[in-house]
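Closing statement on the acetyl coenzyme *A sub-project.
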Amino acid sequence: MFSRIAGTGSYLPSKVVTNHDLEKMVDTSNEWIIDRTGIKKRHIVGDNETTCDLAEKAARAAMEMAGKTAQDIDLVIVATTTPDLVFPSTACLLQRRLEIKGGGAAFDVQAVCTGFVYALGIADKFIQSGSHRCVLVIGAETMSRIVDWTDRNTCVLFGDGAGAVVLEASEEAGILSTHLHADGHYADLLKVDAGISKQPELLASTFIEMRGNDVFRVAVKTLGRIVDETLAHNQLEKSDINWLVPHQANIRIIKATAKKLKMSMDHVVVTVGEHGNTSGASIPLALDTAVRDGRIKRGEILLLEGFGGGFTWGSALIKF
Ligand code: ACO
């Protein structure tokens, strides 16, 4: 039994913050941001908008494309680092919001920017095992809530959004393999250093801290390795990949991975310019964009890859 992507969806909140807006907030410039990251703008939630609101819109779009109703879904997995509440999980809130019947499973996955790849890998294994048949997999984030808008090193990078896929059991090949990894020794290079059980009194005033140069170096090296691992596992050549759908953090990291694959940028889905780094939402956002604009077609081979805090990293090879 395989799992196959039956539909995709995504959503970006309506409020836009451009690089020129940021020039008025911190000591930066449109040229610097575009040159170093490729980002032109980011979408930011309104005061009362939450991760679950974004997830709901992306999920509804994916279900519509897949031709599935709430009655069909028997598992909901939300990849997020910015859940609405400590608990219940965003997945449980979404299950209620979408009126998905109770009794199926619902849970969140936290692997920061690799969250969607982790969630997809888990969903694939549930379907392969025969325990579930139709899974809603969502990456949804409100990164703007954990960004220090006075820190030019980080505030220019992140944005909010959500992307979703519906995975269904199929006898035809869909997800060919997933590869999930982590190395907690790198925990201090990228973090929000407060939480529910550590420095809870600082939670509202603690934001993303990042050693950008170090993150960049490890990301480029690690993403190259995971491309090799994924291809070798499937006995495929670089030239067999039709589309690279990478985590959208920085155009320079994406270009380095494409170079490693000897892949023309014409076959790399790049959306980072339009929404910045939306963490766990970025891969399904890019996937949905390229499916809806007709670039990605049924039967093509896609390589999804992500890297993020933890560090965590992973990939999925998919026959779409
Ligand atoms: N505007 C203007 N100048 C800036 C800005 C800014 N927004 N941010 C930093 N600078 C300055 C720095 O202060 C530094 O100045 P100095 O030389 O006077 O000290 C100078 O620019 C160069 O800083 P670097 O950090 O060396 O710049 P770099 O070329 O490495 O680019 C960046 C920084 C974009 C953060 C890069 O390191 C990067 O993309 N790293 C990966 C980080 C990332 O993607 N994190 C997301 C989570 S992990 C993931 O998703 C992969």
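The chain is about 30% helix and 25% strand. With this model delivered, the sub-project is considered complete and its resources will be redirected to Aim 3.
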